[in-house]
């Protein structure tokens, strides 16, 4: 019991190791990467129980019940469906042997401990996740602005004095245009692949 308390106090309970690219294929997470669709691993942290695999398309979490169990649960979080937010990097104190990176993906909170000597590599992941978070927040605003702009255009048309028959025809054309415009806006600002961000910040 005292060993466990000491381990928790020092951050030794489940400290992760950043895996080098040459060893990605030796991990469980690599088996679940969609290589056939151009998915690529950029960063991978392995603890005694879990693996956290950051690809250009998603976070793949190989979730182990505990360090001694062979049972694993695969959880996949595509960035296009799960927004990253609240990215925090905590550096080590004098007695700590680990550093921490924390973030939310949708409503799920992650808190990953990593060996203190790998802080420089973890900083790269921090920068990449921060930038992805910023891009997602910016794009969400643009999509909202586009939707509001279309709503205003429809409102103006409905309040116009165009003859009823002409109004119906024009409204139909506007509906078709609006759908195409919003679809194009969504495709432009709803990013699925963040490979360029990882390429910029991750120094493998």
TrEMBL record:
- Which intervals hold domain YvbH-like oligomerisation? 145-204
Span of domain Bacterial Pleckstrin homology: 10-132
Task: List, alphabetically, the SUPFAM superfamilies matched.
Answer: PH domain-like
> Gene3D superfamilies of this UniProt entry?
1.10.287.210, Bacterial Pleckstrin homology domain
Give start-end ranges for the coiled-coil region(s).
none
Q: Which PANTHER family match?
A: HYPOTHETICAL CYTOSOLIC PROTEIN, YVBH-LIKE OLIGOMERISATION REGION
**Protein name, per record:** PH domain-containing protein
Organism of provenance: Chengkuizengella axinellae
């Amino acid at each position: 019991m005292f060993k466990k308390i000491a381990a928790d106090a020092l951050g030794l309970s489940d400290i992760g190791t950043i895996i080098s690219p040459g060893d990605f294929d030796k991990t469980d997470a690599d088996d679940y990467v969609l290589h056939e669709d151009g998915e690529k691993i950029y960063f991978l942290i392995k603890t005694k129980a879990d693996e956290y695999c950051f690809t250009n398309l998603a976070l793949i979490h190989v979730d182990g019940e505990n360090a001694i169990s062979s049972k694993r649960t695969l959880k996949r979080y595509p960035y296009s469906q799960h927004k990253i937010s609240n990215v925090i990097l905590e550096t080590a104190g004098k007695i700590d042997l680990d550093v921490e990176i924390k973030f939310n993906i949708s409503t799920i909170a992650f808190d990953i401990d990593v060996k203190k000597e790998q802080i420089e590599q973890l900083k790269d992941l921090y920068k990449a996740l921060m930038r992805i978070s910023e891009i997602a927040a910016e794009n969400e605003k643009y999509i909202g602005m586009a939707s509001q702009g279309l709503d205003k255009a429809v409102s103006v048309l409905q309040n116009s004095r165009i003859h009823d028959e002409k109004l119906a025809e024009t409204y139909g054309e506007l509906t078709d245009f609006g759908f195409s415009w919003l679809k194009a806006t969504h495709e432009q600002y709803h990013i699925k692949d963040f490979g360029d961000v990882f390429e910029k910040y991750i120094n493998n």
